[in-house]
Amino acid sequence: MRRLIGLSLLVTLLVLLARTATPPPSAPAARSPIPTAQDWLVRHQSEDGLWRAGRPDPCRVPTVFEVDEALTALALVALEDGEPRRRGVRALIAAQRSDGAFGPPGAAKQRFNWILPTWALARLAPGEAATRRALRRVEAEALTRSLDDCEAGWALLAFEAARASGLPVRAEAEDAARETLREAVRTARHTTDAVPAMEARFGGGATVPPVAASDDLHLLFFALPVRPVDAPGAVRYLLGSQAGSGCARGSWPPDRWWGTAGGRVYATATAILILREAEKK
């Protein structure tokens, strides 16, 4: 009898120990919003391979500028490798003019149509002759101080991508673009709130104040690499504002001034890039 009681107690003890050793079931991992956002971009790629702001799909918000090539560049970097991205790269190269620029000549904000495709092609197609032509054109614009402060920040992003891909970049062009940023911050005459973040990222001289989660996406894109502490708030904001139904499902609504410039394609591609940056933190 004593043996039976002892055996019963031992079995009970072993069961209790097993229960305590078994970890509680973990909560399911939060689903990333990036795949549904990328699906939205793929669904709204035009037949010619580019991304266009508001034509002809009513789900895309018309913009005040002709910036299709710049929007295409953002979308390409936001996508994973695959046929939509490859088709977009081919379309972007086909849209290049003989002078190395992109987009219609004389269009408002046309330099964004030159600089952002240079950034995308330097990342995704560094071996193409079109990429080298585009890079030389952006270098020339920087050297003649033709870029405004925001354009200079994007040019430095393109130069950074080119160097990372092994392409030669003229140091004096980089210096000229940095000086444009420094002067804008020094005189407090910058064109957008993102310029101090650009200067902090590429020049190391500006102090970036805390970035509110609801600040415009353009600012968040440039600020998070130098202010990673703001990443959790940005992620919460984006998770709460992503469209969940209808033709907009997976996308983000255009925000503030840059939304009128770039529409829903801009907002969705930029949000993906912000979320990627936040995942690194």
Radius of gyration: 24 Å
Identify the overall geometry. globular
Number of helices: 12
Strand content: under 5%
Quick check: average pLDDT? 84
* CA-CA gap between termini: 62 Å
The SS-based structural class is mainly alpha
Helicity level: 55-70%
Name the poorly predicted regions.
Answer: 1-7, 9-29
Provide the succession of SSEs.
HHHHHHHHHHHH
Q: What about the largest sheet?
A: none
Number of strands: 0
Protein described:
Helix content is 59%, strand content 0%. It has 281 residues and is mostly helical. α8 packs across α9 (194-202). The chain is globular and about 50 Å long. The protein starts with a helix and ends with a helix. The model is unreliable at 1-7 and 9-29 (pLDDT under 50).
List keywords for this structure.
single chain, 281 residues, mainly alpha, 12 helices, globular
Note the topology.
Blueprint: H1 2-21, H2 34-43, H3 68-78, H4 83-94, H5 110-124, H6 129-143, H7 149-164, H8 171-186, H9 194-202, H10 217-223, H11 231-241, H12 256-279
Helix pairs in contact: 2-12, 3-4, 3-5, 3-12, 5-6, 5-7, 6-7, 6-8, 7-8, 7-9, 8-9, 9-10, 10-12, 11-12
